[in-house]
Each structure stands twice: as structure tokens, then as C-alpha cells.
User: Which sequence fits this backbone?
């Protein structure tokens, strides 16, 4: 067998990108097919039903639940102001009167004669979806959202933290193996996306937070530092919702690892360009990885249906090793033997033979490499 | 129908990533699993049709069957459908299937008191093969608005609404129904149908629940799952969950309507539909079948990348329990094992020094690249150490869940009155356990079976005499649904082809000082040789005894140790062999690992004795 499938992260200087921008529940689409949008433009919005506040009304009035309707001053469906009287009792000879007022602004949803409970609903909460990338609306999904296309330089990260942000890319390193000193992050990097080196430390993150940096792109990061930053250990790999004031995209993994040369070269080439990045990571069925998207000038005619490419292992192809030993090293495939092979751990696996950049020859499980596309 | 009429059965398990097909045939008077095939599951885009993956897996199986029997006439598929019934070389007598594709069955349950009706509801849902996303109870201390928010956000496939004993107060159940109504929950898959809610609570509250919910949801009423505090009646609720799983959840998944038509087999002399089962429910089914047929107590575990399921059948009444530890696994959830147990607990199983930051980074790198394989021996030892902790924690959760009913009244003698807990005690008794079965990548694909045995021993700490086995290709789901049409076929295949017997563990219970003899063992092996030793405390011994071999054993515990018959009481028994053999474990129960240098010395000694790893790493 001359080739085999192997997952890899995409790093490309030029791709046609399609992004679905969909509301979490049905609402209104604010743009139409063919519109040109900027990353910060709103494309769709909706309203989440407000929070429900249960209120033990019968208890508060001191009446039995089945008699509640006769004391109501408002009815289900009525709009409420904060402090408005919901129900009151007449009391006895004008004394011992009870009055219950609405603790919120919103609506009376229902009252129950079984439990004596009233359900109040707070006002609707607006949910807005931005374009996230500069591009053209190529499709509108009625009441749900849009599909935006553009031509971009594109890097898929391996792990990230934080929300969607946009900013100008600034290189703080001159070599993929550099580690920066926090001092180099000055006020001039406010609102920028900075590229740090082989290892992002807590000191660098803290300095970036204090300056108002929007995003950090790094090759490696220490897990210990993430725990200190977040105040907890990441249990399950679902990230992207952290409110840490900036977004972090890790391109290689945990520990000190040189940035892949191709990624480094691409980011360097597009220094000072606007980029859209996010830290969303989910490693279960339907994998989501962080992204770095750098929109390019394009003609509409260039947009055509994207054909997903399947990465394959082929003799002569370039690979990156993604597990010890030699984690992070780049090599060229020299052999793809068919038979199972027993590696040091005695696990029997399909292997490949490769020559590393320093000329060293290695054999390793096929599962432990990523294909680097030419 | 009688099993004899079945001669060739096709069974598939449609998992989230892989669809596995097996062929079971009646050969020379017994049922055997003969051929298997697999293919990627095709529930998601671009194919969006589960039957494509099934056909691919069955095609592979068909090709392998032709090769095996050197018969090109063998055919199971025609016009993209399974051929049923069998006619000579063509077709099969029955086709059955399980499914966990699309994330399985996700449920939310409610109860008035979390530890009573709430726990019963949870048991019903778990037993039916569901993942329980949350338990909402009247007494769970969260404010009501928080509960409503939670219900609204979860989007389960269905809700099991339980609470109260029959004839009891209706107020709390009414309140639970109101919370659900206020949340107006939407089903996870598609918004084209109403969310199914099964009411299995206080029968006096049925009208109130109907009034509150029936306009908003698809309400199904069934018998109370806890009619009295002393009685649990989970059957009717479980049956309703299965019906709804088919009607709603499966019917929404791409291609399942077609698959549901395919799964048929002979019953009462005609072809009838055999419902698709949720995978974990089928595993529960086979375990109960085995426990019943062989009259034994069974404990099983399936450790995956994301979750770990533990199944057990204990007590004379063969009570079945299942727990899902949703965030304990070895790839996607590996980091959560570290977060749950802590670094120290993992490192205590590691017989060499490692930089702690490096270990943390290694675990996270496995999480973000879950398909990688440990190439280095040290990394294998570390992954297996993490596996021991994941298994241990999942088992702990299982023990806490598999309990006698809480809230029951018992007549107590004066001596009982001094003991605080008579209800709510775990029914998991490692001493009476007969068979411990492991399954899932790290156990099934360990490079040495001795490593599998070691992981099972260290994580579960079996007591007394316990058989150890591994389900190497995880065939239990298919056998579970097969048991629906033929218990005989399922039980025969389970024993002969599904399990790889590792051997038997002999572990006297007690603790003492190192050096004291705690077990005098005499084991007569089938080749005529005799193993005879006064085994000191803190040791492991491995005595080779092959698959299907038996050895006569006289085992005399000492120093107050117990092998099941009481302290210092001799046990005469027959021990079964396996690919590993007999393991004598005098490390004590509970197992107290020594600290410091002695820990490393002991770990190396045990691993060497068990031949768990190559010598070089244990030097």
C-alpha cells in the first residue's frame, strides 16, 4: 500500500473559505445574498426567551393555592414593571393586608392553583451573530443565518482559549524556536494579535492582558500555566468560552515546541494584515479546532465550491511527529511497510519510516504523525 | 422460537465511529461467532445514512465468509438489503442491531428526593442505556430558576419525570412538572416533534401532571417506578424509554427508519421486527443473561476515550446496575482523569521518576491528539497508570450508586441500632464476585495480556477468588440484542468466542506487616507439577495455567486473612486458567501502597513477577 490517510492541520497561504454563521435558535437574518460584509458586521440576530423566576405567591399572600386567582391583580400574559403589584389580599377590617410585588421587569407567564407558584419571565435577551470574517454572503439560511465566503490565508491551531476576535498580526519573534521576554510587549501592541514563540509563559500572558492585546498565537504552552491562568484544570477538551480578556491559539501543542516553519513563514508574510482568530476547541465527534483567518483581496469569480482534500501518507511526503520521541520534528517519508511492527512499547502497529531534517532515520507509528501539505 | 431453527445470524453494533458486524453460526451442535467485519459509521455528512455503513461492514463480512469457507456462493446482501430468511448459502435467519451513533440516548431525570425517587429514576434511565445529563430533584438545593435554566439548556432526547410514592403528597411532583413546563425544553435532534416526557411518579398526581404538561410536550404516563419506599419497579419506565428511543430518537437519525425495517428475526414461527437496542442496554442484557444462565455475579467495565461504563449483577436476586462516568476516559477525557484524581494518585502506579510538568503536558497532548499511540515504553506505563485511576474512579462511582434502596424502614435488633447505615449500603461485594470482565482499547489492546490483568487487579482490587477476562473485540452489544431472540446462542458465543479468559485471581483480604505468611497455597497443575508455597504479605505470584485448564487448589489463609469462608478458613476449590494464569495477590485489601523508595521497589517487584513489562524498565 503506497498511501494511507492521516489527519493533519491545515496551513495554507491561499484558500477559499466557507463559514457558516448560524443563530443558536431561529431569528432574523440581517444581510442578503451577495452582500459584502466586514468581520465586525452583524449578520443575524434573535432573542432568547428571558429567564424564568418562580415565585411562591400563595405562601407570600398566606392563602391556599386554589384560591389564588381571586387575589390576582395581573393575569398571565400581562407585562410587568418592577415593583408592580402582582396580588393582594383585602385583609380583615383593613388590617393584615398582604401585597406581593413583582421583583422583576418582564411578563407574568402562569400561576398554578396546585402549588400556588407564579412564574415570571424576564425580558428577552438579544443574541447577535457577527460576520467574523471579511467576505461575501453566498447563501442565506432563512431565519437561521448565512454562509460567508472569502479567500484567506488560513492556519488551523491545535488548541485554544477565548472567543472570536479580530486584529492586526504582529510578529514578536524572528525564529520559530524563539521564546520572548514579556518586556517586549509594549502599549503599541494594544488591540493587536501577537505571535510569540516556542513557549508561551504565564508572565507573557499577564503582560499581554495588561497591555490590552487581543490575541496571542504561540507554538507551545505549559499546562501548568493554563491551570494558573484559569484557576482550574481543563478537564474535558471543550474550550473557547473563557473570559480571559484575550484569545490564545496554540499551533503545536503542550510544552516547548518550535513553531512549524510553514506556519511561521505564513504569519511573517502576513504581518500587519488583519486577522480573525478564535480559540474554540472540541475534540470529540465533530472536531472543532482554533483558527487563524487572514482575509485576502479576491475577485468574486475566484470563489468556487470548496473540495475538501484528504491528507495521505505517501513516500516522499513531509510529516510532522506529534508524539514522543522526536515530538515536533519534521521528516520525509522513506518507507511505508505493510506489515505490523512492534515498537518499543511492544504495541503492534502500522509504521512508517522517515528521515528527519537532521538526517536521522526513524521508524514510528503512523498514528503519531501529521501530514504537512506541500 | 427455539434456537435450533437459527443457523446463521447477523448482528451489528453501530457505534459513533465504527459499525461492527459479526456472524454467528450453528456449527456441530453449538453456536459460534465465525466472521467479523467493520466499516466507518455513516450517520454524518456526506453520506447521512447509517445503513451505508452497515452494508459496508456486512460486505466485508460476506467477503471474509467466502474466503473462510472457500465458497463464492455465500451472499448476505442483495439490492442493497440484507437477505432474510436464509436459503442455503444465501442470507441469514435473523438480523439484529444495537446503536450508540449520534451520541446515544441522552436523558434528564427528576425525583422529589434526590437520594430516593431521584436515584430510582436515574437507575431506570441508566439501565435503559441512557446517559443521564442531570438529575433535578425538589431537594437538590439549587434555586428553582436555576433548575429551569438547566432544563432549558440541556436539550435531552427525553425526560423521565418521577417523584413521590403512590398516594403520597402531590405538591412536589406538581412543582417539578411546572418547572419542566416553564423551561419549555426542546428535543436535541430536530424541532419537528415535541419532546417526549415519561411520567413515572406518584399515581395520585397523574391528572395534575397532564394538566400542566400535555399541551407542551409528548406526555407518556406509566407506572410509578417507586410505588413505595421499599419497592422499586423500574421495568415499565425502562420499556417506555426503549419504545421512545425507537420512535423518536432513532427515527430522527439519518437512515434509521430503513435500518429498523431490516432488523427482523423469526419469532412464533414468523418473521418479526427485533427492535434496535441502545448499545449499553444490550451490554446490560448480556450480562444479566450470563449471570442468570450460569448463576454467577458479574462485574464488567468498558473504558473508552470519552467515557467509562461499569455494569454489575450482584446478589441472589441478580440485581443489575449500570453507571456511566461521562468524563473518565483515555483520550478525549484523559485530562479530566488527571483533574479528578490528581497527579499523585497517577504517579503512585509509576515505578520511575518523571518530571511533573512533562507528565501534565503529555496528558494534554494526548487529549488534543487522541489517536496517537504510546511508542515509548515509559509512555505506555504512564497511560496504563492513568487507566488504573480512571477505572478506579469509575468503579467508586458505581459502588456508590449500586446500593440497596434508601429511605426504607427495617426492623433492627439492638446490635443493629448502633450501625448507622442499613439502607443505602452498596450491594457490590468483591468477595462474592465470580467474574470480572474488562473491555475498551486500553484493556483490550494492551501489548501484553498480563498488563490487562494488572490493570484490572489494581483498579478493582478483587477479593477472594475471581475469574478475570477481557472482551477483546467488544462483542457484548451484539450478543445482548441476540439474547432477545436466543439466550442459548448468546450465552454460548459469550463463553466460547467473546471472552478471552485471563485467569483467576486469588486475593486474601486483610492487612499485616511485610514478611508475615498470609497464605499457604497448594495448587496441583494439570501437568502433574505442584505449586506449594507459604506466601508472605505484600507479594504477587504468577502460576501459568492455560485456557480451559483447571487446577485443584488448597488455600489456607493465615494471620486473620479471609478468602471468602471466614478468617483463617481453608478453601478447597478448582481454579481456572487463561492466557495469563493464576495470580496470587497477597498485597492486602484494602491495598495500601508503601511510600517513598519502598513503593518503587515493590511496584517493580510486582510488575516483574506478573511479567507486565520488559525487564529493562524494571531494572
Assistant:
Amino acid at each position: 500500500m503506497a498511501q494511507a490517510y492521516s489527519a493533519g492541520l491545515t496551513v495554507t497561504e491561499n484558500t477559499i473559505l466557507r463559514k457558516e454563521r448560524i443563530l443558536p435558535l431561529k431569528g432574523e437574518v440581517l444581510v442578503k445574498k451577495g452582500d459584502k460584509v466586514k468581520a465586525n458586521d452583524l449578520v443575524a440576530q434573535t432573542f432568547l426567551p428571558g429567564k424564568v423566576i418562580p415565585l411562591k405567591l400563595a405562601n407570600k399572600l398566606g392563602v391556599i393555592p386554589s384560591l389564588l386567582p381571586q387575589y390576582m391583580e395581573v393575569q398571565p400574559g400581562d407585562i410587568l414593571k418592577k415593583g408592580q403589584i402582582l396580588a393582594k389580599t383585602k385583609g380583615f377590617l383593613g388590617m393584615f393586608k398582604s401585597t406581593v410585588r413583582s421583583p422583576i421587569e418582564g411578563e407574568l407567564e402562569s400561576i398554578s392553583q396546585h402549588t400556588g407558584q407564579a412564574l415570571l419571565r424576564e425580558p428577552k435577551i438579544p443574541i447577535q451573530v457577527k460576520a467574523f470574517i471579511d467576505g461575501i454572503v453566498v447563501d442565506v439560511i432563512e431565519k437561521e443565518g448565512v454562509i460567508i465566503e472569502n479567500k484567506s490565508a488560513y492556519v488551523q491551531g491545535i488548541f485554544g482559549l477565548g472567543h472570536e476576535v479580530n486584529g492586526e498580526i504582529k510578529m514578536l519573534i524572528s525564529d520559530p524556536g524563539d521564546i520572548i521576554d514579556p518586556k517586549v510587549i509594549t502599549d503599541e501592541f494594544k488591540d493587536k494579535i501577537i505571535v510569540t514563540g516556542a513557549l508561551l509563559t504565564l508572565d507573557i500572558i499577564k503582560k499581554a492582558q495588561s497591555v490590552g492585546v487581543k490575541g496571542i498565537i504561540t507554538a507551545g504552552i505549559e499546562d501548568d500555566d493554563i491551570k494558573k491562568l484559569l484557576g482550574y484544570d481543563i478537564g474535558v477538551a471543550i474550550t473557547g468560552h473563557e473570559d480571559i480578556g484575550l484569545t490564545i491559539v496554540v499551533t503545536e501543542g503542550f510544552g516547548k515546541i518550535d513553531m512549524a516553519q510553514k506556519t511561521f513563514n505564513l504569519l511573517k508574510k502576513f504581518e500587519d494584515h488583519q486577522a480573525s482568530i478564535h480559540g474554540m476547541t472540541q475534540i470529540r465527534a465533530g472536531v472543532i479546532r482554533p483558527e487563524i483567518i487572514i482575509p485576502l483581496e479576491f475577485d468574486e469569480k475566484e470563489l468556487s465550491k470548496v473540495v475538501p482534500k484528504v491528507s495521505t501518507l505517501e513516500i516522499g511526503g513531509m510529516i510532522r511527529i506529534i508524539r514522543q520521541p522526536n515530538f515536533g520534528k519534521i521528516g520525509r517519508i522513506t518507507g511505508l511497510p505493510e506489515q505490523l511492527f512492534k515498537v518499543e512499547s511492544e504495541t503492534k502497529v502500522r509504521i512508517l519510516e522517515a528521515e528527519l531534517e537532521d538526517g536521522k532515520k526513524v521508524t514510528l507509528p503512523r498514528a503519531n504523525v501529521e501530514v504537512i501539505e506541500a | 422460537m427455539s434456537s435450533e431453527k437459527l443457523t446463521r445470524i447477523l448482528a451489528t453494533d453501530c457505534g459513533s465511529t465504527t459499525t461492527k458486524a459479526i456472524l454467528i453460526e450453528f456449527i456441530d451442535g453449538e453456536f459460534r461467532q465465525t466472521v467479523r467485519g467493520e466499516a466507518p459509521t455513516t450517520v454524518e455528512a456526506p453520506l447521512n445514512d447509517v445503513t451505508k455503513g452497515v452494508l459496508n461492514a456486512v460486505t466485508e463480512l460476506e467477503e471474509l465468509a467466502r474466503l473462510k469457507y472457500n465458497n463464492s456462493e455465500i451472499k448476505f446482501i442483495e439490492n442493497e438489503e440484507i437477505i432474510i430468511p436464509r436459503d442455503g448459502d444465501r442470507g441469514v435467519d435473523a438480523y439484529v442491531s444495537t446503536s450508540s451513533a449520534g451520541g446515544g440516548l441522552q436523558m434528564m431525570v427528576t425525583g422529589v428526593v434526590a437520594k430516593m425517587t431521584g436515584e430510582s429514576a436515574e437507575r431506570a434511565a441508566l439501565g435503559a442505556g441512557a446517559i443521564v445529563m442531570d438529575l433535578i430533584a425538589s431537594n437538590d438545593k439549587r434555586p428553582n430558576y436555576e433548575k429551569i435554566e438547566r432544563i432549558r439548556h440541556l436539550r435531552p432526547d427525553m425526560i423521565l419525570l418521577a417523584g413521590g410514592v403512590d398516594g403520597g403528597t402531590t405538591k412536589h411532583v406538581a412543582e417539578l412538572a411546572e418547572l419542566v413546563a416553564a423551561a419549555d425544553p426542546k428535543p436535541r435532534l430536530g424541532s419537528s416533534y415535541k419532546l417526549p416526557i415519561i411520567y413515572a411518579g406518584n399515581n395520585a398526581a397523574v391528572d395534575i401532571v397532564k394538566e400542566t404538561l400535555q399541551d407542551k410536550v409528548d406526555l407518556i404516563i406509566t407506572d410509578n417506578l417507586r410505588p413505595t419506599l421499599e419497592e422499586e419497579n423500574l421495568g415499565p419506565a425502562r420499556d417506555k424509554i426503549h419504545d421512545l428511543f425507537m420512535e423518536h430518537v432513532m427515527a430522527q437519525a439519518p437512515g434509521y427508519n430503513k435500518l429498523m425495517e431490516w432488523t427482523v428475526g423469526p419469532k412464533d414461527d414468523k418473521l418479526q421486527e427485533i427492535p434496535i437496542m441502545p448499545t449499553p442496554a444490550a451490554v446490560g442484557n448480556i450480562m444479566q443473561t450470563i449471570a442468570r444462565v450460569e448463576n454467577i455475579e458479574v462485574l464488567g467495565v468498558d473504558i473508552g476515550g470519552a467515557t467509562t461504563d461499569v455494569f454489575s449483577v450482584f446478589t441472589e436476586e441478580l440485581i443489575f446496575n449500570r453507571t456511566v462516568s461521562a468524563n473518565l476516559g483515555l483520550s478525549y477525557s484523559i485530562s479530566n482523569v488527571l483533574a479528578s484524581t490528581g497527579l499523585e494518585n497517577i504517579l503512585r502506579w509509576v515505578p520511575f521518576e518523571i518530571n511533573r510538568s512533562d507528565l501534565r503536558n503529555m496528558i494534554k497532548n494526548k487529549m488534543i491528539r487522541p489517536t496517537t499511540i504510546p511508542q515509548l515504553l515509559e509512555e505506555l506505563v504512564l497511560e496504563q497508570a492513568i487507566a488504573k485511576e480512571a477505572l478506579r474512579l469509575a468503579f467508586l462511582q458505581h459502588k456508590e450508586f449500586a446500593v440497596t434502596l434508601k429511605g426504607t424502614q427495617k426492623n433492627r435488633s439492638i446490635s443493629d441500632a448502633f450501625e448507622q447505615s442499613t439502607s443505602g449500603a452498596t450491594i457490590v461485594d468483591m468477595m462474592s464476585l465470580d467474574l470480572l470482565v474488562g473491555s475498551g482499547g486500553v484493556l483490550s489492546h494492551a501489548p501484553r495480556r498480563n498488563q490487562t490483568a494488572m490493570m484490572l487487579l489494581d483498579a478493582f482490587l478483587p477479593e477472594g477468588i475471581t475469574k478475570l477476562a477481557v472482551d477483546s473485540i467488544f462483542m457484548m452489544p451484539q450478543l445482548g440484542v441476540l439474547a432477545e431472540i436466543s439466550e442459548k446462542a448468546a450465552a454460548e458465543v459469550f463463553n466460547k468466542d467473546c471472552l478471552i479468559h485471563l485467569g483467576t485471581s486469588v486475593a486474601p483480604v486483610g492487612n499485616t506487616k511485610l514478611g508475615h505468611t498470609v497464605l499457604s497455597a497448594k495448587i496441583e497443575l494439570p501437568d502433574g507439577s505442584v505449586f506449594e508455597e507459604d506466601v508472605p504479605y505484600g507479594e504477587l505470584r504468577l502460576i501459568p495455567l492455560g485456557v480451559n485448564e483447571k487446577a485443584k487448589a488448597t488455600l489456607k489463609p493465615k494471620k486473620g486473612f479471609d478468602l471468602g469462608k471466614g478468617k483463617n478458613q481453608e478453601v478447597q476449590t478448582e481454579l481456572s486458567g487463561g492466557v495469563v494464569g493464576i495470580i496470587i495477590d497477597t498485597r492486602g485489601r484494602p491495598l495500601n501502597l508503601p511510600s517513598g523508595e519502598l513503593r518503587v521497589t515493590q511496584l517493580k517487584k510486582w510488575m516483574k513477577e506478573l511479567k507486565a513489562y520488559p525487564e529493562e524498565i524494571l531494572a
